[in-house]
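Hey, weird one. I pasted the MFS transporter sequence into the form twice and got a warning about non-standard characters only the second time. First submission, copied straight from the form history:
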Amino acid sequence: MTTARTARADSHIRLGLRANLAQFTLLVAVNALVGGMLGQERIVLPLLADDVFQLSAYTAALTYIVAFGATKAITNFFAGTLSDRYGRKPVLVAGWLIALPIPAMLAWGPSWGWIVAANVLLGVNQGLTWSTTVIMKIDLVGPARRGLAMGFNEAAGYLAVAATAMATGAIAEHAGLRPEPFLLGAAYAALALGLSLFAIRETRDHARIEAARHPGRNGADADLTTGQIAWRTSIRERALSAASQAGMVNNLNDALAWGIFPLLFAAHGLSLAQIGLLAALYPAVWGGGQLLTGWWSDHIGRKHLITAGMLLQAAAIGLVAEGTAFGVWAAAQVLLGIGTALVYPTLLAVIGDVAHPAWRARAVGVYRLWRDGGFAIGALLAGALADAYGLRPAIWAIAALTAASGLLVAVRMYETHTRAPG
């Protein structure tokens, strides 16, 4: 009887973007709110560290990015395991409950320790919510449209980062660095929690149905332990491990753009509004570009887009290091956004291509552990180099590391995408 009921329930579950458009659209909206929570910090926090808390050392000023990146990376790992064990929706709701106190801590925290603590909570929030929206979209769309799905997911998140960064920069220009810019984050958290509780539906059964149909290519096995999945994603499997290192370097670059670029721009006399515009250009191009690049990777493959994107990021970071004027930096931010757009959804699509549906959520968690560990590594590395040698040499060093990452993808990764019907 139970088997018959399960079969009847399964008969109503269909894979594909068109078949699940309403839920997919809701998840896109929720991920935009996830991005908005991150965007509220992009302009204001580096300037708070300098102007309000008088943190003169770059390494000390970037502790909030270290706290955010390390916490998010670890949470990503557990998000995949928890979503396999308990379902996707409970993990998503938990992430938004954790987000509720963050805006108040940023807006009224009396010491830098409060800012760092808020970023620990933000890392947990982002790890649970962003990881889960990725997993749920992959569950819904099936194998044929993974690149497109990841393009929509990441575009929503990073367009919201850009829009919120620009909005908070404008608010700070007129109302001050605190508390007004962070009231947007409070509204985002409340709205997202409501949508997650009352509108989003569980998608774990979609993954179970895909797993039952999966051919198990590349020797993939449905019974791997979490440790085996971590080893395969990090080291053993060529495409998964190449994607993991590229993701880490990509977010190392984002830590540089988040924590160091605004200080460089301010040191050259740019206004808050100009810094806000530059900080918004990069995630705006990154976000909007993913609508194209995710779809493009479904048609021409993943590897060459990733290689080209990493090399273009390296060139853009070098241009920031060499620039001294707003126009040059604006062009560099656009190029950096294009390079990141080529890479970001495509790397997630690689994980979806290679990982078996039975352990795909955990593989996404391991990949995102490496990728978002790049925030912490980037903040520590860039801060230490800037303290020792100055801002420009630190930026040049990250550019060289990014170029090396792109060449490693070219050598190690194989093409993972094969056409699937539907």
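That's the output from the first submission. The warning seems to come from a hidden character in my clipboard, not from the data itself. Residues 1-9 have pLDDT under 50 and may be disordered.
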